[in-house]
Amino acid sequence: MKDAELTRSRGRAPGRPRDLTVEAKVRAAVVAELSEVGVSGFSVNSVSARSGVAKRTIASRWADREALITDGLSSLSARLTPPRTGRLDTDLISLAEEIIKFAAEPRRAILARCAAELEIYPQYYARFRRDSFDRCMAAVEDVLVDARGRG
């Protein structure tokens, strides 16, 4: 049996195993790059240097610069779960504390950069706003609707 056949028979693809930390390293570097220089100054070369990941590896996982930026912004998406304590005031305070933590850096810097570059790159601002801040407001709305349903 040849090496490639032996490898496949063991349930693993031929070649070096895929490094599962690469995506996280690259996303962190994309976020840092966007918070410091925005979309206008964004550079795949800089992301490669920041992350310690080869440019060729980045190119094999993200189709282009836009896909890389979009994925980096999506990694900042709000993932808030509305509390269900049964008390509106407690739910709102708890949610407000989570939103304050969420709205800290690097999101604040990226929001400022996106706002400054809104006319040039409206698609990025719209996506960032939807995935980040609109989801926070949806969580607040959910708490209010829940409280209204309780009377």
Number of helices: 8
Q: What class, by secondary structure content?
A: mainly alpha
From the structure provided, what is the oligomeric state, counting identical versus distinct chains?
single chain
Q: What are the segments in which pLDDT stays under 50 over at least 5 consecutive residues?
A: none
Global geometry: globular
Order of helices and strands: HHHHHHHH
Q: Approximately what portion of the residues adopt beta-strand conformation?
A: under 5%
Number of strands: 0
Rg over C-alpha atoms, rounded to the nearest angstrom: 21 Å
Please summarize what this structure is.
The protein is built from eight helices and no strands. The chain has helices at 3-9, 22-37, 44-51, 55-61, 65-74, 88-102, 107-116, 122-150.
Written overview of the protein:
- There is one protein chain.
- With 151 residues, the chain is mostly helical.
- The chain is built from eight helices and no strands.
- It has helices at residues 3-9, 22-37, 44-51, 55-61, 65-74, 88-102, 107-116, 122-150.
- Helix 2 crosses helix 3 and helix 2 crosses helix 7 (107-116).
- It is globular.
- The model has no long low-confidence stretch (mean pLDDT 86).
Write the layout of secondary structure elements.
Blueprint: H1 3-9, H2 22-37, H3 44-51, H4 55-61, H5 65-74, H6 88-102, H7 107-116, H8 122-150
Helix pairs in contact: 2-3, 2-5, 2-7, 5-8, 6-8, 7-8
What are the main properties of this structure?
globular, 151 residues, 68% helix, mainly alpha
